Every structure is written in structure tokens, then in C-alpha cells.
Amino acid sequence: MFPKDGRTTLTVDDIPKKWYNIAADIGSPEILNPATMKPVTAADLAPVFCKTSVDQELDTTHRFIDIPDPVREAYAQFGRVTPLQRAYHLEQYLKTPAKIYFKREDVSPTGSHKLNSAIAQAYYNKRDGTEHLTTETGAGQWGSALSLSCNYFDLDVIIFMVKVSFEQKPFRRSIMETYGGTVYPSPSPVTEYGKSVLAKDPAYGGTLGTAITEAVEMAVKDPTGKTKYSLGSVANHVCMHQTVIGQELIAQMDELDIIPDHMVGCIGGGSNFAGFAFPMIERKLRGKVDTSFLAVEPTEVPSLTKGEYRYDFGDSGCITPMFKMYTLGHDFTPNAVHAGGLRYHGMNPLVSELYHNKTINAVSYNETQIFQAAVTFARTEGIIPAPESSHAIRGAIELALDAKKMNEEKTIVFNLSGHGLLDMVGYANFLKTCNHPMIEV
Amino acid sequence: MFPKDGRTTLTVDDIPKKWYNIAADIGSPEILNPATMKPVTAADLAPVFCKTSVDQELDTTHRFIDIPDPVREAYAQFGRVTPLQRAYHLEQYLKTPAKIYFKREDVSPTGSHKLNSAIAQAYYNKRDGTEHLTTETGAGQWGSALSLSCNYFDLDVIIFMVKVSFEQKPFRRSIMETYGGTVYPSPSPVTEYGKSVLAKDPAYGGTLGTAITEAVEMAVKDPTGKTKYSLGSVANHVCMHQTVIGQELIAQMDELDIIPDHMVGCIGGGSNFAGFAFPMIERKLRGKVDTSFLAVEPTEVPSLTKGEYRYDFGDSGCITPMFKMYTLGHDFTPNAVHAGGLRYHGMNPLVSELYHNKTINAVSYNETQIFQAAVTFARTEGIIPAPESSHAIRGAIELALDAKKMNEEKTIVFNLSGHGLLDMVGYANFLKTCNHPMIEV
């Protein structure tokens, strides 16, 4: 009765014991200090991040880094190992010979993959003596995850939420507050940079870049050194924490005897894509698999498909170091798309490098195409996906339709990075205006 | 590292194969036809429900009823077996010697236990020739579940949503529409009863009783007989469908070698409480366990603790049959509490009978007490619970604090009937006004 190839038997004991640090295999371009244009040192980064985060960010030698037991326990508490599920009903609807699987990062209590790094960063900050942690959040997924994690490890947290999301997604703010976080809309009047932006344009809706500047400013200006900053994507150490996704996935696919032809993830700053894909890319680099990797971004924020590969700041206010990455420019202000988690001007340097050397591919879709994929997935598999994750769904569906045209039994795996239960404003707007809410086949 | 007694290994193969029909063990008071005050017949109910629902509603002879394979497959698709989890962090916070477990009905894609009956009813209606299904919904949990289920089995669905919830929870409406359902606020202008209510008071916020009248009216007035009505709680067959919860729970507790001292559920119409408790009550009736059962209701809607045990209508418009039950009167209009799913004037007759003969106990808590329990649970276990389910959490916490006073290592199991991600308005209001958001210990 129940087909087995969409179910694995992994348990909490199978939660990975190490993170995979792909920088040790492919190298990572130096991060530059904009004042000197020389590579940053650990001392340069010390006012911003806690010591362990700095060490991990600059580590290009250790291929694997132990996951501390308290972090693994928190992973277990909050739902890891996450399921790998086969999308039988989506396959049937598409009438495709392709097999479609998805990794369910939506099952975390904060609704996305973001907890994987939030738990690690909260743990290290607590251990390294931080008392207050600052951060930015776009759609609110990262802020929710860090609030829960800081509550779990007993740390104070201050979150700068991009104002356009703050207003579009008021319930995300309530979630952060329920977990005990303090939330400001960014630009805010509580930092010098925020004040300067508001002075120019009081109605400015903000960007992740602006929120990052505010959060970093608040950390570095604390004379006690007990306030540190935490980043939810883009940085190498954040991407490394996310590799629990891809490692679990490989164990699950090995158990089910699957080798994917295609792996698809959405991409903003790069962390969910990196965590999902890097462990399999490692296999590909060693010649063990021939999987292709597809990153899907919004046409409104096309950092890979339309950006330039060069050094740029990580924030709008130019107070972060400079990263070699695909960028739309640190002053780029995207439209207020509902996939707020993907509204970032740059891209993780390792992902950028892998895209530049053609290890991974990228494609972009517009908001209508994304919500069509979202509704198609909701009506077939029952799960309401995040608009961000729906980029991956659209990418996977297009590959499945290609397989249908070619009559090839391809295996496609995508990362369902989060659910969309707090994105119903976007769904409501889409349903109101669109006569064909599903992808037609 | 990972304690084992909060984890079980049940898989889709362990999804129950039969529902438990407690009416065959304890009998059920006759349902009366108000026109004749004689017991209803299957023919009386035929214009309202599909044939199988009628048969199941009146069945007091079969102790177990087979779950059809397509229903079990849908249960598997949508996340059954649901986890049984131990609330270690809540226990630590309360400093109680009690062990607290919770059954996670929140993991369903529609966020509550309601799918258990929605899937069954959609399947039977499709099989019995129904083309359009009507229903009521309070908080929107039932409407979401029935929309997804009707989409799954290819049926049209029309939902009357209590107006106060329609306005308080606009995103629930979008979820139903995402799944393809049609939603009207109740009272609505599309039924005679709705029109009559609106004529008296255009601003009336509605009740479940009003919405039921509208949905039943639309079904019985279809001359083709292809429109039927579906109920989300209160009826015996709905409670029976929910017994998958309690049966799984018993298998999980047997595996972990646990016998609960207390089982706690929230209660509105009675279906989640019944599904959770009836299978263990069966064990108690056979003298196998000495578990106590606690139903928790809102002080604003105290049907068990303040209601009368007598025959009453199931709806406000007096077009349903009469049920022997604890009732606040079919014209009772509760305040607009955030636990919209518990705003019902009556109570399932079997639960009523078990309460009347003291097999189960009941207690009520007010909204502040409920949200304190909700925030306490969110900050310890990481999961944001539905306001409805938070009644069960409050009940479980009070029992755990009693156990602490007596220094007794009691085992307490509660049903987490749903998550609260779509109830953040209630959380936001509470956090704004409450200086002590957690239960202090």
C-alpha cells in the first residue's frame, strides 16, 4: 500500500556529527578590509562576530568541523533529521516520468532551514561571552530562528527587520517577540546609520543591506565588547552550518539508493542552497556523481544571472568588509517582492565561485511564475510553501517537464527551505489577480 | 546524548487500520427529530450527510470500523503517524518531577488534527456520489482541512466561516482558497437563514451554530441531492475518525513503556478530545489502566463546566436534529475569544455522557491564563501552539505543578491539537497588554 521509496528511517542518532567546510576543498577568495584593501585578519573581525564565528569564517583548512553536542541536541529538539519526501502527487499532476523528491526544512518550529545556523551561532556566542546579539532579518525567518535559539541558550537578541517586511508580515514580528526577541523596523531611529537614511527619506522601505549596517553598527559601538553581530546568510560559516541539510540528504538518498540527476534550491544570500548542495558537490568534485545543480532566484533580484562578479560590501552603509561575489551593487534596492528572504544584493563567495566556474547553474523566475508553482505544490502535496522555496519548486517543475518532453526518468531533488503559512498576504494578492493559479500541463 | 524516552519508531505502516467506535461500548443517547421528538432514522439524515456518514453516525454496534486504504494513504501523505514528544524543557522550567509528553497533531500541513476526519468525510462523500460539500468553520482549521481533503479527492467545497474569525484571521481564508475552497463569512447573504440574521443585525459576528445552519440549509435545498453537508466536530462519526490519534498514542506509549496518570485535551465540540482520549478510556473501562482524563475549555464558553445536560439543537437556526448534550443553549453567543475553534454552544453526546458519569473531568481557564501557557510552551519547547491547544497545555502545566507540590513523579500526556502560526494577532494583543507573559514558577 505505501510505497517505500519516499520514506527513510533516519533518527536523531543520524544527525550529522560534523559540518562540511567546502572552503577547504575549493578555497575561498580573501575577504578584504576596505580601509587597506588587504585581507581581513581575525582581529579585524573580532569587534563584529564572536571568536568562534570569526575562526570558522576564515577557516580554509579543515574539511570537517565538529558539531558541539549541545547544538546537536538542539537540532534534535527542533526536528532534525528532517524528512526526505517524494512528491508523488505533483509527479502525477505533471504527468512526468521524473521522480521528484524534496527535503523538508519547513518542519522546523520556526518554519525554515534558518535554525541550523541560528542554533550554532547562539551557542558559540553564549560560550564566547556575548550577552547581546544583534542581527538583521528580511522576511523574518532568520529573526524568528535566532530569537528561538537565543532564548534556548539564554542570550538577549535585537533584530533589525527590513521595514517593508515588517509592514507586510506583522505576524513574523509577533513570533520573534513571542520567543523573547526585540524587533525594530529598519531603517530605525536607534542607530546613526538608520537615522541618516530616515533623514534622507522617512518612507524608505529598507533592504537587507541597510538592516545589516544597523545591526553591525550596534554591535561594534558597544564599548564593553559584549554585543556581537550575527548573520543569517551570505557568510561562509553560515553556509557551513547549513550543510547538515545536504549531509542528511545524502544519507537518506543512499538509504533509498537514489542518485539525483538534478538538485534545485532557491537562492538569496546563498545559505540554504549551499547547505543543501555543498555535500553533494563534494561528491561531484571527487568524480563520484554527475548531478547538476540549479540555483533559482527572483527576476527582481538577479544577483547570479545579472550581477557582476567583483568585490563589494556586504551592506548598504559600507561598514562591512568586502567580499568577492556576484553582486547587484551594495546600494541596489529591489522591489518589494513577497520572497523577502531573497532580497539581497550579493551572494555567498563560495556559491559565487562555484557559479563562476560553472559547477552550478542559475535561472530566475518572476513572482507570478513563483506563486503558480506554490499553488500547484499546495494543491498536489498539501503543503503551503514559502514564496522563497517556491523558486526551487518552479525550477524542479520545469526540469520535470523537460524530462517529460524527452521521456527521461530523471531524479530531481529540491530543497523545501520553508513553509508559507506566514506569507498568506502574498498568496491572497496572487489568487485575487490570477485566473490560472496553477501551472497548466 | 539523546534521551530515548521521548522518541518512538512508528512508521506509516503503524497507521491504525480501524477506527474505534466507543458508542458500541457505552451506548449513545438517541438523536431526536425535533418535528416528532422520536429518534432520527437514516432516512431523516439522508438529505444532510452522505450515506456512509449517516451509517457511521447511527452505528452503536460495531466496536471497530475499517479505515479504507485511500484514507490511510492520505493519512500517510499528510504526516501520520504523528510524533509523540517529551517536553523536557517545559519540565525543567516548571522544576516538576512530572514527565510531560505531547502528541503532535500540529505537524499536519493544515496545522491541526482536523484532517483526520476531513480526509475520511471527503473520501466517503466522493464515493457516495456527492459533488458539492458544504461546511462551517470557526477558527478556520476545519475549513482548511476540508479544503485540502476535497481537493485531494476532487470534490467542490463551500465553507461558511464565522464572521468574527473571517475578520480576525483573514489568512485562514487565503489558505482555504489556496486549496481551492470557496469561503463565505457567516452570516452570509447566500442562504435564507443568513439573510434573516443579517436583516436583524447586519454587524452580527456569527457563531459556529449560525454557520452550521447556513451550511446545512445549502445542502438540503439542492434538489439534485448532490450537495451534502460535512461537520468538523460534535458528531459521533467525526469523533470516531479522530481515534487514530489515541490509537497511535497507545502504540507509542506501549513502545516507550509509559502508562499516563493524566491525559489532557482542549474541548470545544469535542472531536480532538474524543479522538485523543476514547481509545485509552476503552482501556480504563476494561480495568486495564487508572488514567484520569481532563477536558479544558474557555471560561467564556463553559459548556461542560457551566452548561446543562439536556436535548438541544446542534445549530442556531434549529434545523438540525436534537442531541442530548451539555449545552449553553443553541442561541448562546460567546465573546470573540481567540480560541475560535472552541466557540461552540454544545458538546459531543458521547463526551457529554462520559462527563455526566464522571469518567472524565473538566476545568476552564480564561484567555490570559491560556496565552501565558502558550508563551511558556513556545519559549521552552520552541513550538507556537494554537490558542485552542493552549487550553490543554495550561491544564497539563497545572497538573505538573500539583505533582511538584506533592513531589510525585506523575506522567502527563496532552494533545497538541494544532499550531498557532495563524493566530499571531492573539499573541500580539496578549504580549502588548501582559507584563508577565510566562507562567511564573
Automatic annotation (TrEMBL), chains A, B:
Domain Tryptophan synthase beta chain-like PALP per the UniProt entry, residue ranges: 78-418
Keyword Lyase: yes
A UniProt-annotated Pfam family: PALP
EC number(s) from the headed UniProt entry: 4.2.1.20
UniProt keyword list: Amino-acid biosynthesis, Aromatic amino acid biosynthesis, Lyase, Pyridoxal phosphate, Tryptophan biosynthesis
Catalyzed reactions per annotation: (1S,2R)-1-C-(indol-3-yl)glycerol 3-phosphate + L-serine = D-glyceraldehyde 3-phosphate + L-tryptophan + H2O
Pathway membership: Amino-acid biosynthesis; L-tryptophan biosynthesis; L-tryptophan from chorismate: step 5/5
Bilayer-crossing regions: none
InterPro entries: Trp_synth_b-like, Trp_synth_b_CS, Trp_synth_beta/beta-like, TrpB-like_PALP, TrpB-like_PALP_sf
Family statement drawn from the similarity comment of this UniProt entry: Belongs to the TrpB family.
Name the record gives this protein: tryptophan synthase
